[in-house]
Amino acid sequence: MKADIKWLDNPEVFRVNQLPAHSDHAYYMDYESLERRDNGLTQVLNGEWNFCFSVNAKSRPQDFYEKDFSLNGFNKINVPGHIELAGYDQIRYINTMYPWEGKDYRRGAYSLDPENNGAGMFSEAEYNPVGSYITTFTLDRAMYGKRIHICFEGVEMAMYVWLNGNFVGYAEDSFTPSEFNLTPYISEGENTLAVEVHKMSSAAFLEDQDFFRFFGIFRNVSLKAIPDVHVDDVWFHPVLHDDNESGRFDVNVKVSSILSQKDLKARVILKDRENACVMKNEFPLEEKNGIYCGKISEELKYVEVWDNHVPYLYQAYLEIIGNEDELLEVVPYSIGFRRIEIIDKVMYLNGKRLILLGVNRHEWNARTGRCIGMEEMLLDMKCIKKNNMNAVRTCHYPDQIPWYYMCDEEGIYVMSETNLESHGSFQKLGAIEPSCNVPGSLPQWRENVVDRARSNFETFKNHTSILFWSLGNESYAGDDIEAMNTFFKEQKDGRLVHYESVVYNRAYEDTISDMESRMYTKPADIEEYLKNDPKKPFIVCEFMHDMGNSMGGLGSYMKLIDKYEMYQGGFIWDFIDQAILVKDEVSGREVFRYGGDFDDRPADYEFSGNGVVFADRREKPAMQEVRYYYGLYK
């Protein structure tokens, strides 16, 4: 198969040769490597890559992936990182508008005309920058002879991948891992990896988030050696029964094997905090179409309960056992028992009314943008805990994988949001005008957004901290988002589904979202809803908008918690200012710059600065208000 530049224009092409999304589990060949937390089967490709910037697809080096291509004219760039922050292209901050507004006329394919498929919209655009990346690597010796996958944890926005001159695959969805099989093309000598990243594709209509519009390989890139017998996917599903004392542990596993295995089986072990075994069982794996599948369900008479106050986690181990009881692979995972439900229109966690003392959190670093590491995550978690917050909404895309593990361990309730925001397609100068809304009810966009929901679920399904799946943010409502809701419900994982923008299209309020969710609703308007026999519990998924001298009215919202059971709190907008540290040309000092400070037009200026912490993570005075009022209900 050859790469096709026209895929950029087509909403029905969003993954080519990309491996299916799967659980984010670690894997080890034995318990010795597990104890070291080093499986010897991962090779990180981060570092300095060769790079060429082009203003559009027509001017890009089209054959740069070929083996004998000359790198004359290429520079160096750090991976991960944003292309704009490396000195290329235009730094731009926009809230609701699409970045081309006022410059190019674009409407989503099929949105106004069922015959208009958007051909050439991005592939032939005069302005649609391209980053051409090349690196070479030699496979670690321990990985020889095994299946080799490559995982891109985050690439904005559309990427093509080649290895040793061979086309590997194509992917969109900037904030979920993209994994490809390199095995047919890899050698034990030097390998040449080429990645072509386009700033915009049809996915731009779906990724209109309120943030700086960057592009490039901005999260980790790594090679994964896949053992001959390997857990492709596992779902650890702990269930807390209504008595809040007993539970059930369901495990569903898929295993691939390139070996002939007659009696492949799985063994599940569950241990408590004191390392005492509370469950041990094994079950056969049955082969179907080259995949070995199996499941088990085990009742437990007594379990410790996980919540924000006591985030009790058990340690699960999944062992894959071959002939003569040989251990082929072991997968560890920390899991907790908790139950989220709605009873009489009130959300309960483990039988107690749930109060969300939440915050919306973008990933951000004032020097590196959305390219962050463990240091930033640890600082954010420390701040969240210190200031009595108990919940985080991952606005408006999936976060890096380690964040979800941290939330499991610290007892932070997560609203895991799908990578979707298209408010530029239905909000126009403050008015709601959905005539060209994407995805809407357009059949050509449906599988695209359902796939984004699927990637969110499959990657993060094992995390105890996730209480809610969110369908995205500010994208209006139609059949396609209804299909996303249906997908999550079909998984029957016990979690609730959230979506706010159904408030703009009440025709779907019975088929989208388990809760009434609104933004910046006045306390009086919340009371008006709650007094009139509402259908659903109420949360404010964004409120207070901490910009300038804000947060003064938080007490008015918090009083509603005591007054109305169906009011269950919400998520402050937002955690951290989006501002970039630059050296001032006049004073020579480092200063924060916001939207519009980079001669970017259109721009939404200082609207990027509405966090409860500054961009360098210093707490704003407004945090005192948060700490006090949230502390009353902690």
Number of helices: 8
How much is the average pLDDT? 97
The stretches of 5 or more residues where confidence is low (pLDDT under 50) are none
Number of DSSP strand runs = 38
Q: N-to-C terminal Cα separation, in Å?
A: 56 Å
Strand order of the largest sheet: 33-32-29-28-27-36-35-34
What percentage of residues falls in helices of 4 or more residues?
A: 10-25%
Shape: globular
For the largest beta-sheet, the strand count, sense and barrel status come to: 8 strands, parallel
Strand content: 25-35%
Computed Rg: 25 Å
Task: Find the structural class using helix and strand composition.
Answer: alpha+beta
Q: What would you note in describing this structure?
A:
The protein is of the alpha+beta class and 634 residues long. The strands form 10 sheets. It has an 8-stranded parallel beta sheet with strand order 33-32-29-28-27-36-35-34, covered by helices on one side. A 7-stranded antiparallel beta sheet has the order 1-10-9-12-6-3-4, with no helix packed on it. A 4-stranded antiparallel beta sheet has the order 2-15-7-11, with no helix packed on it.
Quick overview of this protein structure:
The chain is α+β, with helices and mostly antiparallel strands.
What keywords describe this structure?
single chain, 634 residues, alpha+beta, 8-stranded parallel sheet, 7-stranded antiparallel sheet, 8 helices, globular
Describe the secondary structure blueprint for this structure:
Blueprint: E1 15-16, H1 31-36, E2 42-44, E3 47-54, E4 75-79, E5 93-94, E6 130-138, E7 147-152, E8 155-156, E9 158-163, E10 166-171, E11 178-181, E12 190-198, E13 211-212, E14 216-217, E15 221-226, E16 229-240, E17 247-257, E18 265-271, E19 277-284, E20 286-288, E21 291-300, E22 314-321, E23 327-335, E24 340-343, E25 346-349, E26 352-353, E27 356-360, H2 374-386, E28 391-393, H3 401-410, E29 413-417, E30 427-428, E31 431-432, H4 443-460, E32 466-470, H5 479-490, E33 496-498, E34 516-519, H6 523-530, E35 538-543, H7 554-563, E36 567-572, E37 580-583, E38 590-593, H8 622-632
Parallel strand pairs: 27-28, 27-36, 28-29, 29-32, 32-33, 34-35, 35-36
Antiparallel strand pairs: 1-10, 2-15, 3-4, 3-6, 5-13, 6-12, 7-11, 7-15, 8-14, 9-10, 9-12, 16-17, 17-21, 18-19, 18-22, 20-21, 22-23, 24-25, 25-26, 30-31, 37-38
Helix pairs in contact: 2-3, 4-5
